[in-house]
Amino acid sequence: MIRRVEARALSERTPVGPLRVIPRLLRPKFLGALGRSAGRRTLGGKVPVLLLSAAGAFAFLFFVSTKLLGAVREVPEVGPLLASKMLGLGLLLFLSILLLSNLIAALSSFFLAKDLPSIVGAPVDWLGLYGGRLIETLGSSSWMVLLMLLPVVAAYQWVYQGDAVFYGIAAAAIIPYLVIPAVLGAAITLVLVRVVPARRTRDILALVSVVAVALLIVGIRVLRPERLMNPEGFRNLVDFLEVLRTPSSPWLPSEWAAQTLVGYLEGRFDPFWLVLLWSTAAGLVVCGAWLHRRLYARGYTKAQEGADTTARRARVWRVFRFVLAPVGLERREMILKDARVFFRDATQWSQLLVLGVLLFVYIYNIRVLPLQTSEALSRFLISMVVFLNLGLAGFILMAIAARFVFPAYSLEGSTLWLIDSSPLPPETFVWSKYWVGAVPLLVLALVLTFVTNRILGVQAGIMALSLVTITCLTLAFVAQALAWGIAMPKFETGNAAQIPTSLGGLLFMLGALASLAAVLATQLWLLRGYMLSGLPGRVSRDPTFWEIASALLATTLLAAGLTVLPYLFARRRVSAGAG
Amino acid sequence: MIRLEGLTKRYGAFTAVDAIDLEVPKGSLFGLLGPNGAGKTTTLRMIAGILQPDEGRVLVEGFDVVRDPYQAKRRLGYIPDRPFVYEKLTGAELLRFVAGLYGQDGAAIEERIEELLRLWDLERWADELVESYSHGMRQKLIISAALVHRPTVLVIDEPMVGLDPKSARLLKDLLRAFAQTGGTALISTHTLAFAEVLCERMAVIDTGRIVALGSVEDLRAQAKAESSGLEEIFLRLTGGAAEGELLRVLEG
Q: Chain B residue closest to A4 (CA)?
């Protein structure tokens, strides 16, 4: 029933002021988030798990930051300067992340959100709309950076033994530091949407952010920060900082925030930096609001235009159809459909770039490992690294399965009726989903293991064991990811990257981690004689045939169980109508 | 032919469909009417094999949808109330995909796809991604998807939503022709005029139960509403008390 009060308010059609509009716009988002977490509480306590994870992450970052900062400060002469520059660099890094995530969030909240037609169509004050959406953009893109920043700030207070006032100063510096990229992100998006259709802009931004992350990972890795572990590394870092002079720029808010924080901790607090932060933020908000008033109406209209959506009849799909012919018509069509949907979605395929970079970094890490410390020790080290390598490769594959296989069922979501009402047998559906995930992952796993083992120069028997193990683990991870994804689907989001962050995703990771530990522990136990022979003072030898054979058998049997059981579970759930 | 026997569906303590018995004979168009939340969509989703009933059974052309889903679903085309389809496929690719799910492929299906796209004026959109389609175009696409494998039974949930007058007329003609060639269709709709001109028989469903069944004349007699239109009959059968409420709201 429509309430009379609301009916009257609608009939008056007078614009509501910004101070009343902003809370009204934010309330549904807040209640939605609250409702979601309340709903999850019934699923076995998502909130405590999240709090525990956040506390764990905070403790870890705080520990690492205090250790690193403590070590840096002790460097003779340049220590304090380095600590200040480190904070400036860190804040600069966070600022670039913030700008990028604000660009993407602003595009969604200002132009693509589903509630916009009803809001834009209502007599809502323009300033209220700008303020409400800006706060939403700020919140959704800054919370994670804030969570990472807090332990770093706490570490500085701890190491410098700052007083409680420092936290007030930090809050006063961080608030405008977060506002500035949010306003800039919203303004840049506003201008971008005037030039490029919103849906194409989203693809471009997704690609840009992925490339930026990829470059960042490569950049950090190629700098080889592990050299900090020896005194020569410090010399290199100083050279590096001197060459770049990055954090010395007085034009960036990250530097103003760093000057505020370190200045206070070193007893040379200058309110100028704080005033600069707040006045810039306030000035930008005013400019952003002005820009919004001038450009938003046309920008929103332009955003309704779609990008070019004509799909070329590419030859590659015809080749794909031909190659897939032996698997049967239904399976072929399912696989083709999944491949098309994946490669036409920039937010999906662009993730492959990050994957490529991770692989590069991984192989690079193996190449630069300092294994040749002494002749006696290196043999033991190499055999240990082979198993560590398997563990790490397994972990990477697990994460990839979580990102690409776990969401496979959830992504069917609102289109599941098409599958459910067709005569497609549930086993065919599960088979297709399984192999669409397993084949690319298997190729990746085998290449990764083979190349890294070649770099390590491992013995043939161990190479064979590694390749069989990684094959078994991959098949098990895919089955488990699929089973968890079907058992605990997340239909309400269309964003594949968000789906693995659900409780089901967490449970999959824990289960897969336990599987990995079980397989590796069994192998290490069966090969303990060979492993220990590599220690100094012992007669080193190659693994015997029986050692390799027993490890192969145990791995295969264990992994078979860890694959078949979740696979059968997935089939049963789909047959029973999992959705 | 569609037959429902004691069909029941519960969501926790709430009974959405309560022991429905119904038979839709071969070669007929049958209307399913009822207010929002009456259980129409749940019933249709059980017939289409998307939901499994808690009790009772559904027979499509004599095949039990739960026990023999492959045979039942091969003969059935389902058109849902909301046209959710894969946004990143083109219209032609979607139809090809659906045909594949029904085990159909090759030149005959390519011809069928062209024929359906031409029928619904979607030819020039065949290679466009579905994400660029309007609501009405999507509706026409899912009607095509339901027809691509030449079913003998159609289950249709709100067929008129989003269709322009030309397409609505086309759908009516198509359904009449479908029934004349031996096809069976169960149509759930709020568009009473559509049901009145098209369906020989209909059932009115309320709170999960069938409250009236038969031709318009039969319903008129059951509602004790001589010389009334279907709208009046519908309101009498499903409780017309909301009218007074509506007037109070509008008067403020």
A: B252
Chain A residues within 8 A of B127 when measuring between CB atoms: 310-313
Angle A99-A104-A108 (CA atoms, 0-180°, nearest 5)? 140
CB contact under 8 A, A417 and B50: yes
Interior CA angle at B106 toward B104 and B111, to 5°? Answer: 95
Interface probe with A: pick from B88, B105, B131, B158, most Cβ of A within 10 Å: B88
Two tokens, residue B229: 């239109």
Considering only the beta carbons, identify the residue of A340, A413, A425 that sits closest to B89: A340
ipTM over 0.90: no
Domain B2-75+151-251 class in CATH: alpha beta
CB neighbour list of residue A93: distance below 8 Å, 6 or more residues apart = A216
- pLDDT tens, residue by residue, B15-61: 999 999 999 999 999 999 988 888 999 999 999 999 999 999 999 99
Q: Check CB contact under 8 Å for B103 and A329.
A: yes
| Tens of pLDDT, residue by residue, chain B (252 residues) | 999 999 999 998 899 999 999 999 999 999 999 888 889 999 999 999 999 999 999 999 999 999 999 999 999 999 998 888 998 899 999 999 999 999 998 899 999 999 999 999 999 999 999 988 988 999 999 999 999 999 999 999 988 888 888 998 999 999 999 999 999 999 998 888 888 888 989 999 988 999 888 888 888 888 777 766 777 777 777 776 555 555 566 665
CB B33 within 8 A of CB B24: no
Domain boundaries, chain A: 80-146+162-303, 373-575
Query: Read out DSSP for A41-65?
Result: HTTT-HHHHHHHHHHHHHHHHHHHH
Q: Which of A311, A312, A329 sits opposite B100 (nearest CB)?
A: A329
Of A310, A336, A417, the CB nearest to B127: A310
Which tokens go with A531?
């492993």
Q: Is A418 on the interface with B (CB under 8 A)?
A: yes
Cα–Cα distance, A324 to A318 (Å, whole number): 10
User: Is the Cβ of A314 closer than 8 Å to some Cβ of chain B?
Assistant: no
Provide, as residue numbers in chain A, all residues whose Cβ is less than 8 Å from the Cβ of B249. Answer: 1-2, 4, 7
> Does residue B149 contact residue B99 with C-beta atoms inside 8 Å?
yes
Q: Per the CB < 8 Å rule, is A341 touching B88?
A: yes
Residue extents of the structural domains in chain B = 2-75+151-251
For residue B134, what are the CA distances in angstroms to A482, B5, B138, B139?
33, 38, 6, 9
Q: Is A240's Cβ below 8 Å from some Cβ in B?
A: no
Chain B contact for A424, CB < 8 A?
yes
CB < 8 Å to A1, chain B: 245, 249
Instruction: Give first-to-last CA distance, chain B, whole Å.
Output: 49
- Element housing B3 (H / E): strand B2-11
Residue A107 token pair: 């595009």
- Residue A305 CA to residue B113 CA, distance in Å, equals 28
